[in-house]
Amino acid sequence: MFLSRSAAAAAVLFTAVVAGAQQTMSVPAQTPESRRGAGDTSIFAPLNLYPSPNVYRTGGGQPGSRYWQQRADYDLHATLDTAAKSLSGTMTLRYTNNSPNTLTYIWVQTEQNAFRPNSLNTLVFAPDSRFGSRSFVGGDVIDRFNQVVGGKGIPLTLRDNGTVTKVDLAQPLAPGKTATFDAAWHFLIPEHGADRMGRDGALYELAQWYPRVNVYDDVRGWNTEPYLGQGEFYLEYGDFNLSVTVPAGYIVAATGSLTNPHEVLTAAEINSLAKAAKSATPVAIVTEAELKSGAARPRTTGTMTWHFTAHRVRDVAWAASPDYQWDASSWKGILAQSYYRPSAAVNWDDAADQARMSIEEYSERWFTYPYPQVTVVEGPISGMEYPMLAMEAKSQDKFDLYNVITHEVGHNWFPMIVGSNERVQFWQDEGLNTFINTFSEARRYPQRGDQMQRAAAQRAEIEATQKLNIDIPIIMNPDRIDPGKLGFTEYDKTSVGLQLLRQEIIGPAAFDEGFREYIRLWAFKHPTPTDFFRTMESVSGTRLDWFWREWFYEDPHFDQSVENVQTTDSSGTQHVVVVYGNLARGVLPILARFTFSDGTTQDFKYPALVWSINSANYMREYDFIGKKVTRIDLDPDHLLVDVDRTNNTWVAK
After folding, report:
1. Residues contacting 400, CB < 8 A, separation 6+
2. Pairing verdict, β 629-634 and 649-651
3. Domains and CATH numbers, the chain
4. If you average pLDDT over every residue of the chain, what do you get?
5. N or C: which end of the chain has fewer CB within 10 A?
6. CA separation for the pair 615, 613 (Å, rounded)
């Protein structure tokens, strides 16, 4: 509980003497209000929200000795009907049950049902909103869903539950066994697919387009949250074979590697791709002139089928247009590709290089990119990510375009490599990604601010939301968050917290080591927030219950102050007693700057744990020889969050 200022000041028994830079501190007795116990509600109480460690997830943040996850391998074929603006697909799904449980049914995601009349999506989001239906009427039509048993397809019973569908198995699926399913479906393609996919004239961006099996895990069993548009995805890893049949004049970009270039590309394009694979400078694969002349396509009549393969991914998406220019470059043999219409070329001619620099930055700093290519495609979607493929809109500003491209490419690390449940824990992909973006943005365009300056802008935003009392906790289901608060809560607030943890609490060396270890441990797996928290604590050697509580689970404000300063002078030495105040529930380190009569300054930093005995006041005593304190400022460089900075300064009279 909080103590009043006067009571807290009387209870504080800290004594410190500072001569120059040397300091000593005695530890005070605890007050009844500050004792830690079963009924403790302070910010420093043990965080009992952690689930107990078990054989699947350890207390140190690592996957346990018996950790398991399911596997889903797909053979997919899509046919695009540009006249009907529809897609028809067929699928062979091989689903391996690595759990210790026998399954009698599975769940699959039928996300186009978000656009059916009276769907939950249409009832939650206004039609003209970002995640609304825009009055489009569509939905998945399942033509068949069979289980292959003994070489024969047995029709299965389906129960439609909106954007998820229950599939009863023809025979139980025992642990360690694989079931094979054969399915076919079709749907009308929405023009604006909840800002996740859609079409613009002859251009199509296809995602959430096949019945994707839901995740069955050791934490929650079947994860069957509905797809509303705002919350994103949680998927199993596997290998994919993708075939896309489109009109012959179309160019297709997709997750994975193109396996039949000699059937769908010209000899010149194949040669240009070979050059790009060895070039850090973008190479034009398809130019505007080639689009106009018809030289961009081997033929322009009938249809063509493009084949792609992708390994150890959790999804596939694709885009197609007859107007795509195509550039490519590479980093260490990994292709970085961009596809864009001539109308977007003013800044998109730099997009392939922006994608290349993004994978270079994230690989060198955090975890090496494990895939053979990364692709960015221009179209109506303002920014959306899938494995190896990112969708972005036109941009009149190269700086803004890079911010979007590096953000969407960054999602290949969170959640494409580190496969968290972004439909429930949005911050675990958006927030972690926003944090790493500050390094990438600073590297590409340092003239717009270094990484610390970019982080400072995010801190200022979070400070403003707290002053306006519109802030909310980070750990909330994203579909329960007001869309207007989603950005500053799940993206920027998470990034600000990680920045504080890195710079002011455990230090860059410990943070970076822990962050890299988290990615390494949970690459191609399904971590929970607890796994992240425990990994960071194990590697840093620091218990951070208080920080996780205040920054993720709760939503306290932060307000430090200089409560009282007393000075006495004796024989050329000034004795100074300072009472620092903490006027809100949240705690952060104390960053104090003393200015002296001779114009010099001295900084003092005290960890947030100094508030653990008395979270309202903290007293320090100092002795300064041959100079006098004229001013004391708390957090003068604005490295922390503070809702009231008017009480951060003391000036000698």
Report:
1. none
2. antiparallel
3. 5-43+558-651 (2.60.40.10), 71-236 (2.60.40), 266-299+321-423 (1.10.390.10), 440-553 (no CATH)
4. 93
5. C
6. 6
